[in-house]
Predict the structure.
Amino acid sequence: MTSTFHSIETARRSLFTQTAALNTTGHNIANANTEGYTRQRVNMKAALPIEAYGFNKSTVPGQMGTGVEFSSIDRIREMFLDDQYRGENSAFGNWKLQADTLSKLEAIVNEPSDTGIRTVLDNFWKSWSDLSKNPEDPTARKIVVQTAQSLTDAMNYMSTQLNNLDRDLTTNIEVKGKEAQGYLTAIADLNKSIYKIEGMGDQANDLRDQRDLMADKLSKIANITVVETEAGYNVSLGGQPLVEGGEVTATVDSAFLNNAYASGTLKGGEAYGLIFSKNTYVTDYKKQLNDMASTIATGNVEITIPAGSNLPEGTVLTNDAKITQADGTVVTLAAGQAMPKGATMYEDVKTIVKGLNGVHKLGYAMDGSSGRDFFVTSGDAGTIKLNPEIAADVNLFATSLRTTVDAAGITQVVKGNNTLALLLTNLKDSKFTTPDGSVSNTVGGLLGSMVGQLGIQSQEAARQTDNSDYLVEQVNSRRQSVSGVSLDEEMSNMLVFQHAYSAAARFMTTFDELLDKLINSTGTVGR
């Protein structure tokens, strides 16, 4: 037969189970806005029934139910969505950093604009054009010097900004390495704590949430792989273990990340985006800027020297040229031979010179001197400068290609001659070959190519960033639909558990009254 107090135990189990469910619901509600929190659910099941008491077998039909109990409190989470989220998060981190770097490069180049290097370059060519109208005008000569200094200052500043960006990226790589190391240490520590707690039979749901959050954050830095084992999460990068159970097996720093990038194991995440941006974008645009600066100063360019020009003694042309010697005889000067003193070009001749410096050395300054570089450079846009002598005295840069011999036999420069100024003006539309021989283009074309390339790369990176962001949000939405806390659902559950608790309490009260009747009132009738 049934135990007299059997239902008291049934009611007690119900109260305890509904209390656990209410506590878990409250925990979910409290963490509705907690980053990385996974909603939890109490798993209820009917307690094991018992056979009614008897000598052999009870004649009472069926078994007696013993109420309800909860077997576990589980997190509602799908590992597949976690892996998918981390993969998309890694791609997003990469493209976001690339887009950010390209955006900074666009700000440095600052084209098209009224204050960019193109405007400064146009002003420089225009100043030569204006000077060619009156080579002796001191104001026009000062403008040439000022625009030349503005051009070199602009290239110096851009070079400095690119170097600063390069250093910033290097620093950020180090920061990302330290950040990743912190996440790895946290995962290893959580692995140990979870293993210890769950080894005693409890469920470390909240610690598991923290571990998953650390893995999510780490996935934005690098393309990690996470595998769950009995000892916890094993984290690896391209097959190289980073965390195994409670141990961090690698030191992630800038050297580690650069080596992983070089070996091809680092393929995504912010660390990849930073290293790729530094090694590809910044390095490329520094080279293009240096090429442009060195091309202006010393790049190979073909010019046409007009007949009647008097070149300085010792000048070497790259083509054969007919000249009138000082004694009036006309001869052909072979390519590579030095120009004799007092010679005059008998006809136009084409020759290749070393950039603006090469053209400038062909002419004569106001004081009759020649052979002076217009720009001083070591091939780096950060070092190119206007020749300090010219900066100090505007009469020391050349504009003339003509000389005369006075009555005393002294050679004098024709100061009003504008032949060299015109040659320098025409360089604006001349094709230069970069010093390394890799590119042949006008100076404006070199700048336009750089600006156009930057625009395309920036547009592509922005598009990829938007796409990656959308995919991350899409996967995260799916993950939140499974793991996230819905306040409406939790409020509904709270009412259900509250009513179940009230009913169980009412059941216990009712049975208490029955027992009171049985114990205190039975057998008193008829006394």
